[in-house]
Structure to design on (493 residues):
């Protein structure tokens, strides 16, 4: 049997005008790498704020201790001066000097207590609240971007699983000459890969957008952290400068250094150090059309012919239009649509053509009798044979479908669809009556075709020997390329 002509050169895809080089289906990047980096970043800020909390707490305890120490200092001048009667007790004298010493020493002690109270009640809560904000930001990062990374990993695992299945059964196809179950047809498995790959890309792009939002919010959040630190340390300066004047320069230099830090200085340095990890918001999002995977264009995944046909229902007896494909594995699959992304492309009906019987074509109609094996080997064992009545859009398309199915079918008869008038090889499907009925649908709906024991019409008996195979539509298909459902366009209707 000659090799059938491929009807389509590639699977349906959504291309972009600015298409880049092919990308891997499963990138080697760690989806949680950016989230971990930001988690470490928040941890660093949290520790920095914790250092400030510890610093303020230690300063508060020191001032409280200094208050007690100055009470001890006060006791050294508490008692009246010995031989005090030698000194004038009025103000301005030596006695007045010591009284001033006692008063100022008591004031220094009280001031240290007041400083400790302000540090604990006013300054420390500023950094404690900032510490809490950073912790909440860490939880938000884990529940938001971290959860999106897990969803991406799960989607990639499902895609990888189906790519491996595709590789397994394409290898089986090559080693067993295409003898596969319908569910293991590499064409079906590839469409399953495309379906899951589409879901994976959606999860990747959603997670990517979440991480871009996190990056943008981190710039503002870090500016808020620095502003809060500046505000808290400014308040700290005001409290400390009420102490001894000689400590003012040291604390002023420390706070001045803090105040001179630009709001975006740390952020700009962070971006430069991690430019290989962070996401560039200007880079384009991933698309399925830019991705390649193993065995994507394997010959077993390319349909021999594909397109829309009408099939007569078993109950309502009316014709419904569906999408049909004949694969190199010799299956005739029926789908609701050719869209791989809307739903998982599982066949509604699958006929293994070597186990099927095909009758002759008449006009735009032909019949195929066989078992539906779309439910697998076990379901196919209990299913009954049915006669499927098909109608193409044109007689030329019907001849194209019939010829490709005939090459794979187990049995070919010259039986015409019931209620149809057979055509001679000379006139074929271009006869006036046949063409008119096929194109305008004026014939009555045929009853199910009896493929065994059916007597042919006188015309068919006269023109053909008993048991011979009829090849109708010879004249009608003379201008149609082999393996094509559309004149002048090979392989696809």
């Amino acid at each position: 049997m000659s090799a059938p002509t491929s009807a389509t050169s590639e699977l349906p895809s959504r291309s972009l005008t600015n298409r880049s080089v092919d990308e891997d289906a499963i990138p080697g990047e760690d989806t949680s790498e950016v989230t971990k980096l930001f988690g470490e970043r928040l941890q660093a800020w949290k520790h920095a704020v914790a250092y400030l909390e510890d610093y303020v707490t230690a300063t508060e305890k020191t001032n409280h201790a200094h208050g007690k120490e100055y009470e001890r200092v006060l006791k050294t001048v508490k008692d009246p001066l010995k031989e005090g009667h030698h000194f004038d007790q009025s103000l301005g004298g030596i006695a007045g000097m010591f009284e001033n010493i006692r008063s100022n020493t008591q004031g220094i002690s009280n001031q240290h207590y007041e400083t400790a109270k302000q540090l604990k009640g006013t300054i420390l809560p500023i950094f404690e609240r900032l510490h809490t904000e950073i912790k909440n930001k860490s939880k938000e990062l884990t529940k938001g971007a971290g959860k999106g990374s897990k969803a991406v990993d799960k989607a990639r695992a499902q895609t990888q699983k189906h790519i491996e299945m595709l590789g397994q059964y394409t290898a089986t196809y090559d080693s067993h000459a295409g003898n596969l179950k319908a569910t293991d047809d590499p064409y079906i498995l590839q469409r399953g890969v495309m379906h899951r790959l589409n879901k994976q890309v959606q999860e990747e792009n959603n997670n990517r957008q979440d991480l871009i939002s996190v990056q943008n919010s981190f710039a503002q959040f870090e500016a808020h952290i620095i502003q809060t630190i500046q505000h808290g340390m400014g308040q700290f300066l005001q409290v400390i400068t009420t102490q001894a004047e000689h400590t003012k320069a040291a604390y002023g230099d420390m706070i001045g250094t803090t105040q001179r830090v630009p709001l975006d200085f740390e952020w700009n340095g962070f971006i430069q150090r991690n430019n290989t990890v962070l996401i560039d918001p200007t880079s384009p999002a991933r698309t399925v059309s830019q991705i390649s995977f193993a065995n994507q264009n394997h010959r077993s995944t390319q349909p021999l012919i594909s397109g829309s046909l009408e099939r007569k229902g078993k109950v309502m007896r009316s014709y419904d239009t569906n999408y049909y494909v004949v694969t190199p594995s010799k299956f005739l699959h029926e789908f609701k649509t050719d869209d791989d992304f809307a739903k998982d492309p599982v066949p509604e009906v699958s006929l293994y053509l070597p186990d099927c019987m095909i009758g002759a074509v008449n006009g735009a109609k032909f019949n195929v009798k066989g078992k539906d094996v779309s439910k697998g080997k076990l379901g196919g064992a209990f299913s009954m044979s049915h006669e499927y009545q098909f109608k193409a859009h044109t007689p030329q398309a019907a001849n194209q479908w019939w010829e490709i199915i005939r090459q794979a079918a187990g049995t070919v008869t010259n039986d015409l669809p019931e209620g149809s008038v057979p055509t001679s090889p000379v006139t074929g499907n271009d006869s006036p009556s046949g063409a008119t009925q096929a194109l305008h649908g004026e014939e009555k709906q045929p009853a199910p075709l009896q493929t065994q024991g059916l007597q042919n019409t006188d015309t068919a008996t006269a023109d053909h020997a008993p048991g011979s195979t009829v090849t109708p539509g010879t004249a009608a298909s003379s201008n149609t390329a082999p393996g094509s459902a559309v004149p002048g366009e090979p392989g696809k209707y």
Remarks:
- The first helix runs from residue 33 to 75.
- Confidence is low (pLDDT under 50) at residues 1-21, 420-493.
